[in-house]
Amino acid sequence: MTFENTLEFAKQLDSQDQLHKYQDEFIFPQVNGKKVIYFTGNSLGLQPKRTKSYVDEVMNDWANLAVEGHFYSKKPWWDYHERFANPLSKIVGALPSEVTVMNTLTVNLHLLMVSFYRPTKTRYKIICEEKAFPSDQYMFQSQVHFHGYKPEDAIVEIKRREGEHNIRLEDVLAKIEEVGDELALVLIGGVNYYTGQVFDIKTITEAGHKAGAKVGWDLAHAAGNVKLELHDWNVDFAAWCSYKYMNSGPGNASGCFVHEKHHNNNDLPRFAGWWGHNKERRFKMEPTFDPVHGADGWQISNLPVLSLAPYLASVEMFDEIGMDALIQKRDKITSYLEFILHEIDKEVDSTFEIITPSNPSERASQLSVLLHGEGRSLFDYLMKNGVITDWREPNVIRLAPVPLYCSFEDMYHFGQILKSGILK
């Protein structure tokens, strides 16, 4: 499609957009009396209007039923999490038995590493990407320390080539082959939080397995944003947060994936707890742990239903729409934003360098833009003029045109505000 940098063209694209109506499903902050252009769904998604009714339902059941709400509320609390199995499995490409919700992201990655990072004297190294999200870096360091290794010996970072912003797939595969028999685990972010690069999960997982390692993924920026086929790609495990692209609220519960090939392995270590015990026998208070079959067997404590309620509201919205429709709009609106940036670049003295890959298969709903010749004052101008975006040092803004609630008209108006901020 040939794009145009005009308001009329943007409105035309919105009129053809099947998902345009979903903008009305969300609550937008306001600046100067107008709803904002929201580009930070990669940090915290907007609140769906339907969320309040899901939370109110739990609050009312708590008020009216108290402890009996575990079994007699409309959505009984004791199996509340089971309502996530079908919609979540579609979002991440899994069997319903392979997904669960519990805890928060880094907690879950730690718990999953109990099962899948089993270092030996000869096979103990972990491969990750350079400049992974700091929480992942801290997790790797503490895990290898716990097992008696030094991070500088056990953690292998795949680096970007000199002068390049993204990691080449060929370099990932070469590093896996190089580490070879010393490799215990590959654990990479499915989408790099800084650059927005989407990694080839299928190919990297195959390479890790060929080297004899387990392969897991941090899908914080991928779940609800990228087309995933975790089961078919034979991924060992994965975890993701729910508050970014899945709009479940700040710091909310994490999702987990454990491939079914591991479900019957009773020798696989895990940190056990009451809620992971055989559901039919849980209230018999038995002394020996008998895990639930499937990913639910990795649960530890009973779940915070008040936190799950907003997440359930969101995944049911995803189930209505389907990932294919989301991906289709994601690609189109991201391409339109890219076009707008290039058009504005022609009209100003500053230079915009998009460090996110230009290949649509290597990016999702994020463009990270290096603003040559501009500083923090431009970011401040955008924020004061109703564009909520994200600043990363030294001079990068991250723009996430989330297809659920961003419009093509938003992209046009952003371009005009950006231009005025530079020319002011």
UniProtKB/TrEMBL annotation:
Pyridoxal 5'-phosphate binds at L105, T106, F133, P134, S135, D136, D218, H221, Y243, W274, N302. The keyword Hydrolase applies. Its cofactor is pyridoxal 5'-phosphate. It comes from the Bacteria. It is an enzyme of class 3 (hydrolase). GO terms for molecular function: kynureninase activity. Its EC number is 3.7.1.3. The modification N6-(pyridoxal phosphate)lysine is found at K244. Keywords: Hydrolase, Pyridine nucleotide biosynthesis, Pyridoxal phosphate. Residues 89-246 form the Aminotransferase class V domain. InterPro entries: Aminotrans_V_dom, Kynureninase, PyrdxlP-dep_Trfase, PyrdxlP-dep_Trfase_major, PyrdxlP-dep_Trfase_small. Pathway: Amino-acid degradation; L-kynurenine degradation; L-alanine and anthranilate from L-kynurenine: step 1/1; Cofactor biosynthesis; NAD(+) biosynthesis; quinolinate from L-kynurenine: step 2/3. Belongs to the kynureninase family. PANTHER family: KYNURENINASE (PTHR14084). Catalyzes the cleavage of L-kynurenine (L-Kyn) and L-3-hydroxykynurenine (L-3OHKyn) into anthranilic acid (AA) and 3-hydroxyanthranilic acid (3-OHAA), respectively. Homodimer. HAMAP family: Kynureninase. This is Kynureninase.
